Amino acid sequence: MSFNLEQDLEARYEAGLYRRRKTLDSPQGPEVIINGQHYLAFCSNDYLGLANHPEVIASFRRATDSYGLGGGASHLVVGHSRAHHQLEEELAAFTGRERALLFSNGYMANLGVISALLGKQDAVFQDRLNHASLLDAGQLSGARFQRYLHNDVDNLEARLQKTSARRKLIVTDGVFSMDGDVAPVQALSDLAAQHQAWLMVDDAHGFGFLGATGGGVAEAYGLSQKQLPVLVGTLGKAFGTSGAFVAGSDVLIETLIQFARTYIYTTSMPPAVASATRTSLLLLQEQHWRREHLQNLIQYFRQGCEQLGLQLMPSQTPIQPLLVGCEKRAVKMSQLLSERGIMVTAIRPPTVPKGSSRLRITFSAAHKLSHVDRLLDALKVVADSVEIERVTDTASGF
Ligand SMILES: *Cc1c(COP(=O)(O)O)cnc(C)c1O
């Protein structure tokens, strides 16, 4: 008897969807070493350049003197350290919520929250371009599961009008991870209020960049705990560390502590990671120049692309995807760029809808304008040798 695994791998390869890992021999940063080769990279989510920040690293080192390394147990057994607790209190203050709760990563936070809040009598409404962890969480919860058209408040409203579910949860990315556009959170919040629904925003890519002090979409649009009751953030992106948090009311957090299985049945993150994150939270809030510099990089890049006739997607965030369309062509472009010493990843289905493969270009506050010049020069050469489909022909996601 055979599982025929080779067949599935072959099919994936033939479709231009095969994925390979790159092995990194350096810290995350604008310049990385992969398999011994130096590259200028535009693909991490380290938006503020904190993943290799000396103060963050120093906090981590100091904390290992106090706490050692491993969390050693789940939070409810004996793995909840003072460092975890302090970080939770600081994240609650940062987000203007009553409380915050740490999870080991964003994937688990989303699975835990949606499953804890919803069951069979309930309904979950998700933007069709939501992150895979949210979609998986919706399925796992057993609630009636609906996907509405991307950022389409009318389409969502029509669906809300028809439901007779006990609890209704609207779920969206804050900043969409593969498109870089921002959800209409104010309108979603108003709609939730009209339909006695709750709004949950996963702002993995908004924290650190959006809002006057990096508080993400909630801060940028001034959404209170009442307007946006379930706010999720991840620590592996702009915070530059690892983990995730959920911020909300006291009763929400108590519910998660009692019922979120991905919180209860897993080891706490290393306490030193929590300590390091306390330092990155301070830097994230106080060092406005990182957000301002990112804005400059983004505008500079978009103007450069316009001059080259390259059509970007309508994004004003550090995620600047160049839509290519065809899966194989996106991979080819990524290869040609890497031959010129530039690392940009091709994003293909099932991460994005079929026919909307793209180069996901991301910027970090650690990039310089001269890095963007090098990227634009390389894109010009590569785009000339690999014709890019017009955005309007292939876009299915927006
Ligand atoms: C990255 C990401 C996650 C997962 O977070 P991890 O901490 O990496 O597991 C969840 N949601 C969104 C929108 C993300 O971009």
From TrEMBL:
The keyword Transferase applies. GO terms for molecular function: 8-amino-7-oxononanoate synthase activity; pyridoxal phosphate binding. It is an enzyme of class 2 (transferase). Gene3D superfamilies: Aspartate Aminotransferase, domain 1 (3.90.1150.10), Type I PLP-dependent aspartate aminotransferase-like (Major domain) (3.40.640.10). Its cofactor is pyridoxal 5'-phosphate. Pfam families: Aminotran_1_2. The modification N6-(pyridoxal phosphate)lysine is found at K237. This is 8-amino-7-oxononanoate synthase. One of its GO terms (biological process) is biotin biosynthetic process. Signal peptide: none annotated. Keywords: Biotin biosynthesis, Pyridoxal phosphate, Transferase. It comes from the Bacteria. Catalyzes the decarboxylative condensation of pimeloyl-[acyl-carrier protein] and L-alanine to produce 8-amino-7-oxononanoate (AON), [acyl-carrier protein], and carbon dioxide. Homodimer. Belongs to the class-II pyridoxal-phosphate-dependent aminotransferase family. BioF subfamily. Its EC number is 2.3.1.47. Substrate binds at R19, H131, T351. Residues 39-379 form the Aminotransferase class I/classII large domain. Pathway: Cofactor biosynthesis; biotin biosynthesis. PROSITE patterns: AA_TRANSFER_CLASS_2. The keyword Coiled coil does not apply. It catalyses: 6-carboxyhexanoyl-[ACP] + L-alanine + H(+) = (8S)-8-amino-7-oxononanoate + holo-[ACP] + CO2. Pyridoxal 5'-phosphate binds at G106, Y107, S177, H205, T234.
